[in-house]
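Run log, item B.
One chain of 466 residues. Sequence copied directly from the ordering sheet:
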Amino acid sequence: MTDSWATFGADLHLEPVGQGLRSGLMEALREAVRSGRLAPGTRLPSSRVLAADLGVARNTVADAYAELVAEGWLTARQGSGTRVARRSAPRRTDPAAAPSRPARSGAGYNLKPGSPDLSAFPRTAWLKAARKALTAAPDEAFGYGDPHGRVELRTVLAEYLARARGVYADPERIVICSGFAHGLTLLGRVLRRRGVRDVAVESYGLDVHRDLLTDAGLRTPCLPLDERGSRTGEPAALRGAGAVLLTPAHQFPTGVPLHPDRRAAAVDWARSTGGLILEDDYDGEFRYDRQPVGALQGLDPERVVHLGTASKSLAPGLRLGWMVLPRSLVGEVVAAKGVSDWTSGSPDQLTLAEFIASGAYDRHVRSMRLRYRRRRDQLVAALAERAPGIEVSGIAAGLHAVLELPAGAERSVIQAAAFQGLALDGLARYRHPDAPAARDALVIGYGSPSESAWAGALDALCRVLP
């Protein structure tokens, strides 16, 4: 354990029990010392710093420290601060004594966005599809594989995407990949070889996507964003870019759909400049209050690359994604992928093809849509009752919501949540380095917790909101 509050703060969590903050703080410190997460000699934050982080009175922390010093758990010396005592925890001599509860290795609840409810993976239906697919699979399916991907999967995907997302697709336009990041990596290589230097990205998004493009030798200028989505109609915003990466159906993380005028403006830009639009359709199946927004690719299949995955609809561990490409790009992307398919196993591709063809995929998506909509409604109701001053947005679709906070409160709320064993992300986590800081907010992933953990996670969230 390093001698720093950063490490201490990440590892210390309070159990969400009905005790006062002072008592809870004391017990959390005792447990951290017992378990070894706070090693002897570790310097604790000052009472002033910890009180500011938690948003409580300094006396609350000072009193907790003083009592733990009196009990022998901590030591306090002038000029040295408060530290974990060298021999604070008594040695257990009775072998029959009940062992202490093991320390938690991470947060008790996770409301970070980006993952579905993994406990809801349809194991029985997936196993049934796998058995049927493997029984019917030809011998060559167990070879090195075609870099295009299995034709069985590309065929059913073409039908499904046309029906469910309004994508113009045929099997020859589709290339299977191991997820969005893999697809973006391949496209970055192709764009760089074509002489593209800049790929514009939204002012809020995942840094890992920017990093993948940067690793391919591309610059990632910032595209402004407002309540109508990315401002694609401003010529200066896309000047010099050879491509733009968008999340038009449900912007991540702000949750706004791209306005129809701006969808049209993006396509007009691509047509007039020869540029490409990279469409991340990361959670397009989950729409709650109105009909799904169709994929942007349907407006111009030769200027838009449609990227989708099974990561949100099923599970990210499957590592299955797809690209629906303009015809002019197919050969270059396949060449970038290599002479064999080293990334997406044929058995899993065949299983997904059977899972979709049998109707099991549609049934699972409908079931999860109902579950996630119920969670969203419970989140909104809980906020209205327990934190009525918090505005929530971005909830018409997807697996996350944005909770507006008072100016300057984002960091302190996240720190208080970590202390309570609740993992949260703030909106600042997703801001492009060149984008101005506009607001304080939380990005709440309500899809992540299991059914059994959801109520506790929601309660913990409400407790830390201002």
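Observations after the first pass:
- Residues 1-19, 88-106 have pLDDT under 50 and may be disordered.
- Residues 147 and 395 are 37 Å apart (CA to CA).
Flagged for discussion on Thursday.
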